[in-house]
Amino acid sequence: MITNAYIRVDGSLTIGSGHLVRCLSIAQYLKTKNINVLFITRSKNIVKYILENGIEVKVLENDCSLTDELSIIQNLLSTSNPNLMVLDVNNYHTFKTIDDYSYYLKSLGKMHVFTVSFEDPKNHPPLSDLAILPYAGSDNLKYPDGKCLYLTGPKYFVLPRIFLNAKPAVIRKNPDRLLVSMGGSDPKNITLKVLRALNKTKINIQLTIIVGGFSKITDTMVNNEMDNYKGRFSIIRDCKNMAEVISQSDMAIIGSGLIKYETASLGLPSIVISLDQYHSSIMDDFVRYNCVEHLGHADIVKDSQIAEATINLMNDFKKRQRMSDSGKLMIDGCGVERIFSKVTSKVKKEMSDE
Fold first, then answer.
1. Which of 22, 106, 115, 163 is the S-S candidate for 128 at Cβ 3.0 to 4.6 Å?
2. CATH number, domain containing residue 178
3. Assessment of whether the complete model's pTM goes beyond 0.70
4. For the chain, how far is it from start to end, CA to CA, in angstroms?
């Protein structure tokens, strides 16, 4: 019934790469259902990742106005007649205001395309056909009645396909492998803050340092922070095998983006440092799943707190085991199937009502 789909997403230093990774996972799933996929983006720097996955992409110019973008989409709709539009752009960067985003959704609605949108839990207009909020705590919020169907909570989280068959992390009494990853962009260079804190300790543990594809952190910057570190460390740039790296780690220090759901899915006990105050404010719901320890947002977290939390978690085998078990219960990897089961049902209903 659904034969064509467009996916609208951006990625950059400020936006990060989590939205792109999620959309690539969706595209890969759609292709298994023989659905044609076309990406639409303003971000030229993500084009190579899309093409690497064998997916076509339409690149919008940076100075393309909102009206021009909608006109381009209208023309694309008229030529390829897609059944589905997936949006992952409600991230405070693609649109200047929530009113612009609302106008965008209303305009798509007039084009008679079924819209599926990933939304922010605290600021979203109920204007798409199906809205997904796959985040901890979103299933406890109240949503307005109307045409929009809401799918909420971690059971709708879209895991990258490489995670689906990955082995979970093994919780050992004497951990010696620590993963440090602050997401695909790390605009505040939180990675360096973490390394500086660990460099001041006497711990001797193998560090795997992931530097995302959009990050400005150089190897020299990393080496400068690790000048007195007692253990070994390695740097992986733009990691292609994140599931394997997580599986082989004993614990992690991570950012507050979508990576925390990925480490939870493989049962890796993690310490989270939030990018900003907003991320920190919504971490409370995630912490209730008991699979991470949250230190707060990066601007206020001290080096000593990072070091102390790391050492304490290393020395608490039972806590790490509990965190691991809780994370694996939270994310089961079936999110994308659940989403498109709902999409298919709603599309069928709307067609029968016409």
1. 115
2. 3.40.50.2000
3. yes
4. 15
